[in-house]
Amino acid sequence: MSHFNYENAFSRNIGWVTDSEQQLLRNKKVAIAGCGGVGGVHLLTLSRLGISNFNISDFDEFEVHNFNRQAGAFMSTIGKEKCAVMESMAKDINPESKITTFPEGVFEHNIDAFLEGVDIYVDSLDFFALEARKTVLSKCNEKGIPVVIAAPLGMGVAFVCFQPGQMNYEEYFRFEDAKTEDEQFIQFLIGLSPSMLQRSYLVDETKADFKARKGPSTPMSVDFCAGMAGTYVLKILLNRGKVIAAPYGIHFDAYKNKMVKTWCPFGNRGLWQKLKFHIAKKIVLSD
User: Fold this and answer.
1) Are 26 and 51 in contact (CB under 8 A)?
2) Residue 144 vs residues 46, 74, 189, 243: alpha-carbon distances, Å
3) How confident is the model over 126-157, as pLDDT tens digits?
4) Burial letters for 217-240: b for 16+ Cβ neighbours within 10 Å, e otherwise?
5) Strands (E), 35-170
6) Considering the entire predicted model, what is its pTM?
7) Phi then psi for 61, rounded to 5 degrees?
8) What is the pLDDT of residues 30-84, one digit of tens each?
9) Phi-psi bin for 174: left (phi > 0), alpha (psi -120 to 50), beta?
């Protein structure tokens, strides 16, 4: 701690942000639900950006199968709580950080505390953590907290942002239109990735298993997510740069050498999205 100096530690950010903007970032507060794949990298990236206040949540512990993508997954952290490990790593970057952990996860009974004083929420929950995700997104909408979602798909990132006063998460994803939980997962998938750029190079479709609640991942996609989410956190918190928010989204895929700006003006109730829903349902829920 005696060797740490905030201004020196984050001095190389200056130029892309001003000295006064760096101090603004220093005092902002970010909530991140999920400390595994994208969540852990989000926390470290935003810590290196100089943000010093976080609320983080995760009920899980690190396991060997996390090694391909999770920032806190090492032989030395197997069996350790993700929240505790990631808090320690973030404070190793910035010892002045104030991090409140929610190691039981986020639920109705603690969501207000999780979002207390928060300037922006970065969604990092597991794809299949549907109830927790709806709980957080609903409360963010109620409190007027901006939401950033950067999803690791294939070897790229699918991105959507929800800004207060604009299209909200339910108007976009239309979870309540779905009849079953599986259909809600499909609504989430096609909303995140209307372009489905990643689909064509999935070499083993059996590994994308909705029924087992598991899917394949790559470390590259997680890193792309951190870069995308971190950039939007910066733009929203500093109120500069164009922010692309729902009903618009962005999908960048390094494998396909493509970037697509998506537009779903009626959310998942749009004609093309309904068609994609029926196609995806046949694919992912087929026996």
Assistant:
1) yes
2) 21, 37, 24, 16
3) 999 999 999 999 999 999 999 999 999 999 99
4) bbbbbbbbbbebbbbbbbbbbbee
5) 53-57, 98-102, 120-123, 147-153, 156-162
6) 0.96
7) -120, 155
8) 999 999 999 999 999 999 999 999 999 999 999 999 999 999 999 999 999 999 9
9) left
